[in-house]
Amino acid sequence: MGNFTTSDGLSLYYSDTGSGLPILCLAGLTRCSDDFCFVAPHLSGHRLIMLDYRGRGRSDWAKDISTYSVPREAQDALELLDHLGLESCAVLGTSRGGMIAMFMAATAKSRLLGVALNDVGPELAAKDLKRIFNYLGVPPTDRSWADAAKSRAAQMPGFENVPHARWMQEVKNMFDQSAGGLSLRYDPQLREAVRHSFTEPSHDLWPLFDALDGVPLCLLRGANSNLLSAQTSQKMFEKHPDMIKTEVPDRGHTPFLDEPEALEALHRWIKVMKK
Questions:
Q1: 211 in a structural domain
Q2: Which of 44, 98, 108, 164 could be stapled to 120 by a disulfide with Cβ–Cβ 3.0 to 4.6 Å?
């Protein structure tokens, strides 16, 4: 575990554990490397590299919030690989992390051994994106992790049969707790950075997905996901019929990654890369 300095001077936190196939784990928009605590024990035979993006977790916040962007975060990921002396790695990307992986494919494909996309693709439902934006940067009103866990369970559409202990760990990954209550583990200005992206013309992201041609792929979709539709998932498979594809039951956006269906798909994906 340590930090490295980006080319624009930010100190970013990362962890690097294990040996074998290097897998760079990239979290969702507001999340950090702690999200991979659920899947990490099941990938213990591999080298897991986990990054806290700029403005998230234990990494520095950016003065220029325009750098809270997929292209800059992809550059940070590549700079981390350079820092570690790695020519290439596999990427396990949840939501935002998957977008970063697709951008890496378009700009630095030779650095990718494979990509696993957790409930993300080149088309995302606008309605659910707006739902995410509604809570982005808003301080939590709950005073304790216990209260936040109850709220989280009620607020997450599409999640069923999730024990309270899991929601407790989720909110501990999301919030810091002090005598004053809970606080966000990311720069609230991320909201403003994302707001700008909503006001810009939407881009066709299919070319980014097409850039993954020839890269071992895995797609995990929450069976109840409102963000990644079953239709988009199927279209992705039709474009890349060798892609390992599975739906995780009782999950919306995003699966935790330690569900049996998710693990089976991830292990198949890893087996392909190790051939």
A1: yes
A2: 98
Residue 243 falls within a domain, yes or no? Answer: yes
Residue 232 counted as domain residue: yes
Q: Which domain holds residue 208?
A: 2-137+186-273
Compute the distance between CA of residue 143 and CA of residue 214 in angstroms, rounded to an integer. 48
Look up residue 27 and give its amino acid.
A
Here the CATH number for the domain that contains residue 101 is 3.40.50.1820
Q: Give the separation between CA 136 and CA 177, rounded to whole angstroms.
A: 18
* Residue 264: inside a domain: yes
The 10s digit of each residue's pLDDT in 141-199 is: 999 999 999 999 999 989 999 999 999 999 999 999 988 899 999 999 999 999 877 65
Cα angle 33, 248, 40; round to 5: 30
The whole-angstrom separation of Cα 94 and Cα 156 is 16
Number of domain units in the chain? 1
* Nearest partner of 35 among 256, 258, 269, 259, judged by Cα: 256
Give residue-wise pLDDT tens across range 83-119. Answer: 999 999 999 999 999 999 999 999 999 999 999 999 9
Token readout for 199 is 């006001």
